[in-house]
HSP20 family protein
Amino acid sequence: MLMRTDPFRDLDRFAQQMLGTNGTLARPSVMPMDAWRDGDTFHVEFDLPGVDPGSIDLDVERNVVTVRAERPNRASDAELIAAERPRGVFSRQLVLGDNLDTEHIEAHYDTGVLSLAIPVAEKAKPRKIAIATKDDQRQAIGA
C-alpha cells in the first residue's frame, strides 16, 4: 500500500520541481518531448502514457504543430492518496522552421509515445549548382 509522506518532504519536492536544481524557475512539463534530426527527417517524440489514442488531436497550421491530449479524471469517490500524473486536457505547440515539409508529417502512437516524422523540405536540401562558362555560351551559339 502507498503510504502518505511527510508534508515537508512534499513541499521540498514541489519547490525543486518549480525552481529546478540550479535555483532558476522551471516549468514542469505535462508532455515531455525529445526532438532530433536524422538525415532528411526531423523526429519528435511526446510522452503520453495512459492517454487513449482517440483523444489525441494533432493539428498543423502554417509552421505550428499543436498536440492536444486528454487523460480522463478518475470517476471514483475513493480517497486520493497521491496524484502526480496530470489529468484532464493538455496541449503543446511546436513552431517549426520553414525548412520542414509540414504537408507530409507522419504520426504514430505506440506504448504511450506519440512519434512524429517531419521530412526536410526539398527546397531546404543541399543541391549542386551548375556553373556556366563562356565556352558553354559559345558552344550553345555555334550549335
